[in-house]
C-alpha cells in the first residue's frame, strides 16, 4: 500500500490516517466538514487535498447511516483499487450496496474494536488500534487483492485481524458493546437527580460501570439505529433477568422465612451467573483470564508518584499485570491497586514497605 484515502476524519478515521502516515503511506483526507479534514491534516494525518488519481485503498470512516452512500460514491467514481469501511455494524451496509447493484468484489467491511469516550480528530492517536481485534467480514466474492490490502492495513495499525460473518459480527457487538453502553447509560441516568450526599459516596465501582456513558449520544444514536434488532433482543432478555431479580429482592423483605430463603436463592443465582460470565472475558493479551491478587498502596496526588511506585515494583522484580486507581473523596490521595501473580504478592509487599510505601490490606 502506497496511497490511501480516508473519508471521515473523526476519531477512528484520523487515528488510521495518523498511523498510515507514520508508516510512509501517502494519505489523503476527505470529510463533509472541510475544516475537520484540515484539522486532521494539521495533526500530521495526511493531506486535505484531493488525490491526483485512484489510490490503493479508500477507508470510509463516516457514521453508520452514511456508510453505504459514501462507499457507493467512492466505488462508482473509481476513487480506489479497494474500498473498506470501519463502521461498527456490518450487515446493513453490505445489503444496501448489493441493493444498489454495485460490484462488491472490490469492497470489504471491517470494524476495529477500539475507541475512546472522546470523539473528533483531536482525540485521535496513532496507537489506538495496537493489540486490539480488528474484524474483517469478507465474502466469497471479495477479491483476494482487497483482502490482502485490508490485512496490510490492520498490520500497519498493529491490530489483530479477526475474520467473521457480517451478521454474526453484528450480533456479537450487540452483546459486548452496544447493549453494555445502553446499560451503562441507564445506570448513569439514575445519578442525574440523585442527592448530592449520595453522589459524594461514588467509588470505583460506579465509575467503572458508568465510564462509557460519557460518550457522544449523537454517535450512539447512529450506531444503535444501524443494529436495533439484536440489541433489543438482548435488552429484552436482560429485562426478564431484572424482573426476576426485583422479585427476589422483594421476597427478601417478606416476613415469611420461606419467601426470604427463595429470594436469597434467586439473588445468588444471578450473582453466580454473573461470576460465570465474567470469567469468560479475555484477560491480558486476549488470553484466558488469570487469577491475579491485589496489592493496595496509598499514594499521594503528586507528580511522579505513579512512576516511582512502578519503578519500585520493577526493582522488586514484580510484573504489574494490571492497575487501578481509586481516588479518595475530598483528599489529595488515593489507592493504587496493583494486580500481580499470587507468587509476587509477598515480595512486592515487603519491597514496597521497605521503600516507604503505605500498604493497605
Give an overview in words.
The chain has 361 residues and is α/β, with parallel strands linked by helices. It folds into 3 domains: 3-164, Rossmann fold (3-Layer(aba) Sandwich), CATH 3.40.50.720; 165-283, Orthogonal Bundle (6-phosphogluconate dehydrogenase C-terminal fold), CATH 1.10.3660; 293-360, Alpha-Beta Plaits. The chain is 47% helix and 17% strand. The protein has helices at residues 11-22, 34-42, 64-76, 91-99, 144-156, 166-189, 196-199, 204-210, 217-226, 228-252, 257-278, 305-316, 345-354; strands spanning 3-7, 26-30, 55-60, 80-85, 107-112, 133-137, 160-163, 293-300, 322-327, 333-340, 358-360. The protein has a 7-stranded mixed beta sheet with strand order 2-1-3-4-5-6-7, sandwiched between helices. α6 (166-189) crosses α10 (228-252).
Helix and strand arrangement:
Elements: E1 3-7, H1 11-22, E2 26-30, H2 34-42, E3 55-60, H3 64-76, E4 80-85, H4 91-99, E5 107-112, E6 133-137, H5 144-156, E7 160-163, H6 166-189, H7 196-199, H8 204-210, H9 217-226, H10 228-252, H11 257-278, E8 293-300, H12 305-316, E9 322-327, E10 333-340, H13 345-354, E11 358-360
Parallel strand pairs: 1-2, 1-3, 3-4, 4-5, 6-7
Antiparallel strand pairs: 5-6, 8-10, 8-11, 9-10
